[in-house]
Amino acid sequence: MKYKKFFRLTLWEFEEIWRLPTLELIIGIAVFFGLSSTTAPSSLPLRQIVDVEGNMFRLTLFEMFIIAVLFARSVAGNIEKREILNLFTYPVKRVSILASKFIVNVSLIFIIFASVIVARGLLSQLEPWNTLMLIVLFILFLETLFFSTLSLLLSVIAKKTWATILLVIIFFFTITSFMPQLEPPLKYAIPTYGAQAMFSYLALGSHDYTFEDFTVALSSMVIMSIIFLLVSFIHFKRMQVD
Amino acid sequence: MKPPLRIGILLLALALALFLAAFQRAYSPVSFGGGAGNLQPNEWREMAQDLLSPQNLKISFSTVNGTPITLYLVNSQQLQEWKETNTTNPTIKIENQSSIINTYDIPSREVYTILIHNPNNKTEGIHIDLTLFGFEKDLTLTTAIITIIGIAIPTASFISEKATAPSHKKQA
Hints:
The complex is a heterodimer of chains A (242) and B (172). Chain A has 242 residues and is an all-alpha fold.
């Protein structure tokens, strides 16, 4: 019964995204920017995966923006328009409402962007189950999780659609502009640099990155995501809707 | 909006994005090349292996001393055949040329090897430039298939609805 209600909540959230033209825009942006660039051909898997990974970093900016818009629309927009009050009348815990929104949006974004990365890999003759491809997909998952939890947190705090989008962009550009001045391994606590460090260490076996750098990159992304998620849920539970 | 129509619109949006990506790739030529020196008389040499996409391939090469040589572009199967029997039916065959600029068709996306042969009785060198351009056949085919499915799903649903709906005349 409990799961049935939760399933209904996720279905409502999906129906909201299913409306024109949200999915079309996400798929269009992901496919065009993910597949349009060309690189010099090579038969070496390592060079091919560098092409796939380079493309993933190109996609990160678009992915971050799409995540910010989706969460701003789904969470902050619902609070702003007071539509969330209708959901509060549904006999479920507030946590379930936020969890359903989070799960649907994260899954959708990850499935779309991972499909584009896999398609890019197939163009370079790299199968999806290739270890190098799995590493790239794992990093993509961590990045998606980090940006989603950040957007979720800012959505429940700002409670306004445009304010959330702006805050995510400002936050991202602030950390990518000021934090690179830090010395490694602290520098790799920033998701973009962290993703680069993780890929170079795991896939390329680069000697420029140590195990410490890799650990800092991985743990900072996971820990920050968990903290953002917990704070979002606690804040949402106690939140007053004006 | 009915689900078949919605799925159709989604597939057409995907096809449009794929077409734009394919268009961008088609008009962003990729050039690469290399050289081989000191080719001994009657020597066969394997040059670089590259993963080529099914596009147009412009091959431009010239020999250092101006004597004609033979160039084959072979896929992995043809390369294996050549290694075992010393004969093969290559994808691209350029025989007894000292210089050439020509465009060829790459049939499928796979790893190809350039084989060069110096049939002369003196050493020779070669410089070769390759350019890939044009629409990729597999990407274009995928786009076309998605477009057809995107049109077929709502059309089929519309036709089946029309066929199963009771006519007003009969009801009257």
